[in-house]
Amino acid sequence: xxxxxxxxxxxxxxxxxxxxxxxxxxxxxxxxxxxxxxxxxxxxxxxxxxxxxxxxxxxxxxxxxxxxxxxxxxxxxxxxxxxxxxxxxxxxxxxxxxxxxxxxxxxxxxxxxxxxxxxxxxxxxxxxxxxxxxxxxxxxxxxxxxxxxxxxxxxxxxxxxxxxxxxxxxxxxxxxxxxxxxxxxxxxxxxxxxxxxxxxxxxxxxxxxxxxxxxxxxxxxxxxxxxxxxxxxxxxxxxxxxxxxxxxxxxxxx
Amino acid sequence: xxxxxxxxxxxxxxxxxxxxxxxxxxxxxxxxxxxxxxxxxxxxxxxxxxxxxxxxxxxxxxxxxxxxxxxxxxxxxxxxxxxxxxxxxxxxxxxxxxxxxxxxxxxxxxxxxxxxxxxxxxxxxxxxxxxxxxxxxxxxxxxxxxxxxxxxxxxxxxxxxxxxxxxxxxxxxxxxxxxxxxxxxxxxxxxx
Lengths: 254, 192
What we know:
The complex is a heterodimer. Chain A is an all-alpha fold. Chain A contains eleven helices and no strands. In chain B, the strands form two sheets. A five-stranded parallel beta sheet of chain B has the order 5-6-7-3-8, with helices on both faces. Chain B is globular.
């Protein structure tokens, strides 16, 4: 397992398994957990569109989600609540399925994206995951208090003259880019599972906010490590194994 | 005493004018009450002072660099969140000094495991004890028991004595009479 063949994929997923649950806590705080599915599908659609256009799929996925994350904020007046995420999810899924249905090359990548292609992660993806994860940790640490204040005391947040863009556009963009990276490596449903289940457990079990974040990060890393080992041991696709491990963990702990 | 807030013939509203014209001053160290029947626009005026509602007429002047804190009737959505009272107070920068004994010992409990009254008082405390020069309070005694109302009155007097200005909208005539230096009765179309 520790040969480079598996070490690079393992570390790529580990970086994401640490940071995705933390991001999920803030999405859950904002009642935006559906964002995980939406951005993951947009990333898949963008990656396939890029492949068809002869561009690197990773770049296509990142660009599509970045545009979706930024565009969502500009359309916020008309797409309040979860409507924007539902539309992004449907749009991303439709583009991905149509491309896969009509182009054999896209079909193979679509399968990989939806099932997860962690074992094919290379050093470039590892570097992106580590850099993206590190950036996300830094930004979330800086924004944590403001995200909480904006959610719980929006009037006080406004009266203090705190800038809106970091907790709106900035956070949306961060979530979109991290989800794109996760989709490119872990797959659509594995990324969603890491973003949904550990924060759900953390919100049920955490006594304080930091305690909840520790629950989420620990849950994500433990479930990921167990799933990676199980998938390798039994030669199974990683995404479904991780989702099952997280479902089991959720039922056990919740 | 320096004037923190000065309103002249102020008319406020959301999409259209919704209040009678109001003349109002709040000085440092002063607690002013704003009373009147439902629907006359008391909360809207408070929101206008905080910059949330629109000004349709008159003039509103606030002291330069004034730090405002607004408590609304909306309860912070803490249900289901892994948040303790200590988290909540740290979030707004509220002081822990002066918390009532029946809350001081429960600061590390999750907010959604406190009683409704305890949770409400902590949410109110997070604003009342936050760093601010002018406090705007909208029906602060809602959901408080008698002990909470008494304690709130003491804390507001302490804050005013320390130099803060306080503007209170309340239906609780007894509380307003006990705490406020003076009260404005808002009635359509004029302030009496």
